[in-house]
Design a protein that fits this description.
Layout (H helix, E strand, L loop, with lengths): L5 E5 L6 E5 L4 E6 L13 E2 L5 H11 L16 H11 L7 E2 H7 L6 H9 L12 E2 L12 H13 L6 H6 L4
Parallel strand pairs: 1-4, 5-6
Antiparallel strand pairs: 1-2, 2-3
Helix pairs in contact: 3-4
Amino acid sequence: MNETRLYTRVESPIGELLLVGDGHALHGLHMQEGRTAVSVDPAWRPADKPFADVSEQLAEYFAGSRLDFDVPLAMTGTPFQRRVWDALREIPYGETATYGELAQRLGRPSASRAVGLANGRNPIAVIVPCHRVIGSDGSLTGYGGGLERKGYLLNLEAARGVRRSPATAARGPGS
């Protein structure tokens, strides 16, 4: 079945976000000013109303008043990618994990590179918080929206006063 894709554009503190869905679930949230910008498919239809709830939740998140998202998601990927994306959603707001820690959690301790590749293919940025994954030394590494956006999101969450992992806390404010 080939459902029509709908889309809308949302302005945010990290630039324009492209939301893509089917009217029931979100299929993509793409930062349009990073290296992973997505072109609108000519078959997609513009529609704001189906994205009203996710747009509101994103505004609340960026305002610092939302810690978790309650948005139906439809993510297409391999079974391993979906396991990684599920693990990303388990990283609490204001905390971080390393690629190695995620690999351990998935029972694949030697798969940190595979975790990194799956993380990089996350189709729903921000809501599926791939920005919460950092290097083993606490550094900001690889982010499709650019490291400045990753730092912004981590600092936004840290400013809320929610607990942070030692690696995030070691970077300090403004990193």
